[in-house]
Design brief:
The protein has helices at 14-19, 60-70, 97-108, 139-156, 170-180, 201-207, 227-239, 253-262, 273-284, 290-304, 314-323; strands at residues 30-37, 43-46, 49-55, 74-80, 113-118, 132-133, 136-137, 160-163, 189-194, 243-247, 267-271, 308-311. Helix content is 38%, strand content 18%. α3 (97-108) links the parallel β4 (74-80) and β5 (113-118). By secondary structure, it is α/β, with parallel strands linked by helices. Strands 1, 2, 3, 4, 5, 8, 9, 10, 11 and 12 form a 10-stranded mixed sheet that branches. Strands 6-7 form a two-stranded antiparallel sheet. 5-aminolevulinate 2 binds at residues 273, 312. This is Delta-aminolevulinic acid dehydratase. Keywords: Heme biosynthesis, Lyase, Magnesium, Metal-binding, Porphyrin biosynthesis, Zinc. Zn(2+) binds at residues 119, 121, 129.
Length: 327
Amino acid sequence: MEMVKRPRRLRGSEVLRKMVRETRMDKSSLVYPIFVKEGRGIREEIPTMPGQYRYSVDTMEEKLEALADAGVGSVMFFGIPDHKDEVGSGAYDENGIVQKALRKAKEQFPDLYLITDVCMCEYTSHGHCGVLCGHDVDNDRTLDLLAKTALSHVEAGADMVAPSDMMDGRIRALRECLDAHHHYTTPIMSYAVKYASSFYGPFRDAAGSAPSFGDRKTYQMDYHNIREGIKEALLDEEEGADIIMVKPAMSFLDLVVKVKEAVHTPVAAYSVSGEYAMVKAAAKLGYVDEDKIVCEMAASAYRAGTDIYITYYAQELAKFMDEGRIG
């Protein structure tokens, strides 16, 4: 049989396969989410996320150092306060847990790039992502508090802010507030395409942020919808978002593809707590090879168009990249 075209020619060796690889990954694109809480001497393993911990400000140094040594240059902070109230005042308190963690991290690791999650759900007594009006979140009243939170983070040392609340107009509110205080160069990474997903369950356990009533479907998106996600991405880009995020990652890679085609900003994908927990559970039972699954999940996100990958496996992926197992 005479065949001119033989695709297998380019699969003959490891060197050749890497040479013609279409999707390439780099450690600089990895972001590690870290949970910080009030107190001292705290390093609590999260039951639903084996291998992940809640740290106090004095114990997070060891983890940040391990990440830096592995080549993971960016972290995203999530705060767990001692006190919660109706308006989530701990989120924008200059001595709040994230603000204290930022100052310490900036002092100890000046080369780490510090990103903060901007939301109210960890700080409100009701667990919703903003100020309530009855049993619904008051969108416009919440915007001022989100802007105050972002500003307090930047003034404490954040290099980038990432609003995850899904309030309409919050990117413009943050941009105007930051610019008014001369933080023109601080980027905003918007959780623009964020779905109401069951994949968030372990995170809510980790951060103590489950709503005390109802759900978040009036502000997070219906997971059946594609065009709505594109609309949200374009609106946030227009309002001043510098990076557009899709969340979750694994089950929404079709949205990563669509968003990548639609916007003119870098695209991030967040491999969320439920994805992490499922891999850990299956690996513990011996059903899957954890390392190989983690590499395959990451490659699929980058293949779909992800420029920035937020993952609890950032440290492991950096090691796999060094070993040539992925990248």
